[in-house]
Amino acid sequence: LSTANTMRTVALIPGDGIGPEISDAVKKVLAAAGVPIQWEEYPISTKNVVPGQDLIPSNVLDSIRRLGYGIKGPLETPIGKGHKSLNLTLRQALGLYANVRPCRTIPGIQTKFPAVDVVIIRENTEGEYVGLEHEVVPGVVESLKVITRVASERVARFAFEFARQNKRRRVTAIHKASVLKLSDGMFLDCCRRIAAEYPDIEFKEALIELCSGYLISQPERYDVLVLTNLAGDIISDLAAGLVGGLGLTASLNKGEHTVLAEAVHGTAPDIAGKDLANPTALLLSAVLLLRDMGLQEHANRIEHAIYTVLREGQVRTRDLGGKALCSEYTQAIISKL
Ligand code: ATP
Ligand code: MG
Question: What residues does the Isopropylmalate dehydrogenase-like domain cover (predicted)?
Fold first, then answer.
């Protein structure tokens, strides 16, 4: 109990667009739930980037590293502004090697698919995203996919640890080792080796194309999925789509020393500043963060309050067909705590 009540400091990056509004919802709900967290706020923004200086000031990165835990709203991705995405910069600078996205059907939210309850764990540092492409001769390009034992074992171990911590039963490695014998072959081999260290968790393997079909028709086959970078990118968006989309999907980025929670949606510039945003995705991301910090009871209580409001359906934001403002929806969640 003493660890559960110790005050912790967590970095908060409100972000651009609707970021400040949904971050405000997180602060209010966690405060109302009595979560022992105080915030250290960092106004990182694409708007604050100064040409010729670091995209994200090194003292900000140091602070997040020192605190170890952070939550961020969406940051605008500049198109044609000549600098890299802040989201990507942050991920690389903090060594966030795994992306976790639980996708679970929410009672009361209509979807066209059977009930889904899966957690996608995506390798976030290598694979097809290493950016090694070149034109051999005009009309012929090559693109490299890099798979390493270190990164594969690291993400596999994280998947099993996540499964154990969250009382999940099965981890399925998704691959295309039938064709990519060396790269996906090694990824799969690493997953098998790590699986042997977790006899309490069932291990399965599935080809990615079969997995895609089954996710839509028989999602109960899957529990925790572990994938390489591009495969994880695609399957995680597919799974998010199955359960009701952008405004509801949480994610957690895991590094060796840093954990950063973030919603998967963008800055939603069309509704920014109007108190119309749905804060659920960031709130559920905060729930993931609390679980990772060992604050299970707080996490469960907040999650339950969110699900209750969504199930009852009286107070919903516009993206879910309701009329409630972000602040009203937030208040409704607080009233269920
Ligand atoms: P960015 O460039 O930052 O990715 P975007 O223009 O692509 O921004 P998204 O944030 O990806 O916008 O959103 C796409 C659509 O979904 C928009 O119409 C937006 O209003 C809506 N949307 C996204 N997130 C939310 C949310 N949390 N609540 C309500 N609507 C949302
Ligand atoms: Mg977008």
Answer: 9-333
